[in-house]
Amino acid sequence: MTRAMRLLVLAVVAAPVMTYVVYRLARGLGFLDPPWNREHEYRRTIIAAIYAFLLFLPILLFGYANAWPRVWWIFGVVNGLALVGFAAMGCFAAVRLWRLRHPPGEYAAADRAPASAVEPRDDAGKPLL
Q1: Which helix (DSSP H) or strand (DSSP E) does residue 87 occupy?
Q2: Closest Cα partner for 86 from 54, 41, 58?
């Protein structure tokens, strides 16, 4: 048996085992449970986008550094599009999570409230200054 055939057999045998390990890990971390609120959904989307980005970026850089043959260019294009898609998905989820945690009216109300509370007033409610 040649080295390539041994690696093929090893990949065929190891693929189901690795799939089961990834499934158990995802289930243990709660990725397969439905999200309990919007914040949890956005956080999971960001984590998935980061992992996909970390997976596809080395492949793209390796292929570019080794000057992929013309046949593999389409794979590089698809890989680059996947990178852009996952980056956009992660950025969109991060912006939505930021807006969910920091509503725009929250800061405006917080800026106005302390100024009126600190201003000294007399018994009738008129400003002393």
Answers
A1: helix 70-101
A2: 54
